[in-house]
Amino acid sequence: MTNPFSFSGTVADRGFCNRKQEQKDIIDFINNSENVLLHANRRMGKTSLIYRILSKLDKSITHLYVDLYGTVSENDFIETLMKNAGQLESRSEKLLKTAKEIFTSSNISLSIDPVTNLPSLTPVFGTSKKTLLLENAMLLLERYSEKNRMVIVFDEFQEIENYSGGEFEKRLRGFVQKHDRISYIFAGSRQHILAHMFNSKGKAFYKLAHSYPLSEIEETDYMKWIKKLFAKKSKISDTIILEVLNLCERHPMYIQQFFYHLWDSDLNKPNIIDRTLRLILLRNRNEYMNIWDSLTLNQRKTLKLIAANDGNELYSADSLKSVSLTTPSQVTKALQSLTNKDIVQKNGTFRIQDVMFKQWVLRL
Ligand SMILES: Nc1ncnc2c1ncn2[C@@H]1O[C@H](COP(=O)(O)OP(=O)(O)OP(=O)(O)O)[C@@H](O)[C@H]1O
Ligand SMILES: [Mg+2]
Fold it and tell me: How far is the CA of 128 from the centre of ligand 2 (A)?
């Protein structure tokens, strides 16, 4: 029997647990052509949820999913967007004809994506005015939205902050605002960057989208889902499930990883959860060591303090002494850097974002 749990890539079908309310909320936004900022920490299930939603949309809504990860410039943005244009129109001649009505014929070409078998457009960055290609690409989207209402997903949207200055953001905003038959979903995990982009008055994307933080899946939903998947193999006790949910702080990827390993284990073995935890920490050791090695001594001390105190009492004399720090300002400075690196997050108290990294730090 194949293992139903999976912790690499996105999940669908039986591997996808609940998120019914989130699907409903976001589909409502899409049906009303509203823009959404979907944000959550790494590996919380943003992309899986988006795929799920796109597969459930009314067929009269055209969708375009664009992953901006790794793009570093406006040209990359346009290239990635146009590479995916086959999602708008699967008939290549038709797509090229429409594209050529907008772009001049010398600055766009057509090919077939060998993976998806869909047509793909490639812009040619040459002599044309720098701002023109973005204008053309956005006009192509607008043209398609005149036929069918659309949803366009920009996953890993924080990448655009790395492009040159705020000028690109301003121009992009102009198009997004104008497209009233398109619902834009901006998704990403670098929450302090996204918050800055969408919540700061001076920024181009200020209040341009409904903020939708993706929270943890409910305990009862996890319970039902895990039991159902396990039922094909063996019975699993509520106690084991609850212990794993707590240890993983309900983080979906680590829960999947835990149950992936538990699926092939004898659940009656003593300390089975602790053994599995140690296995997971060992598998992730290199990644955690890379993070640890990149930190200053005071940042390491502060991380140890957060892990040990669960984010509480970080500035008390006893706390400082427990990790050999001397002044509260050392903690403040380290917290600032750790937040900028997305290792730590302030949510009431300071927390280490990656719950298994926290377990690893606790064991140092
Ligand atoms: N609804 C869900 N039910 C069960 N597991 C899930 C669910 N959503 C996500 N996961 C688990 O989390 C992992 C990461 O999912 P996904 O790639 O969708 O997250 P993400 O937030 O887009 O991650 P990233 O920040 O890396 O882009 C999946 O491999 C899966 O193990
Ligand atoms: Mg993702």
Answer: 34
Phi/psi for 353 (5° steps) reads -60, -45
What SS3 state is found at 152? strand
Same domain flag for 44 and 158: yes
Residue 106 has a pLDDT of: 67
> Is 63 a member of any domain?
yes
Tokens of 77: 């943005």
**How far is the C-alpha of 280 from the C-alpha of 85, rounded, in Å?**
40
Kindly report, residue by residue over 320-329, the tens digit of the pLDDT: 999 999 999 9
For the chain, how many structural domains are there in total? Answer: 3
The answer to the question of residue 255 being in a domain is yes
Residues 228 and 192 in one domain: no
Integer Cα distance of 205 and 172 in angstroms? 9
Q: Does the reported pTM lie above 0.85?
A: yes
Find the 226 Cα to ligand 2 centroid distance in Å: 23
From residue 70, give the alpha-carbon distance in Å to each of 67, 104, 191, 202: 9, 28, 17, 26
Domain containing residue 227: 219-283
User: Which helix H or strand E contains 93, and what residues bound it?
Assistant: helix 92-102
- Write the DSSP assignment of 147-191 as a string of letters: HS-EEEEEETGGGGGGSSTTHHHHHHHHHHHH-TTEEEEEEES-H
Q: Whose CA is nearest to atom 13 of ligand 1?
A: 253
Q: Which of 190, 213, 236 is the last residue of a domain?
A: 213
What are residue 49's phi and psi, to 5 degrees?
-65, -45
| Pairing of the two strands 344-347 and 349-352 | antiparallel
Residue 334 within any structural domain of the chain: yes
User: Ligand 2 center to residue 327 CA distance, Å?
Assistant: 39
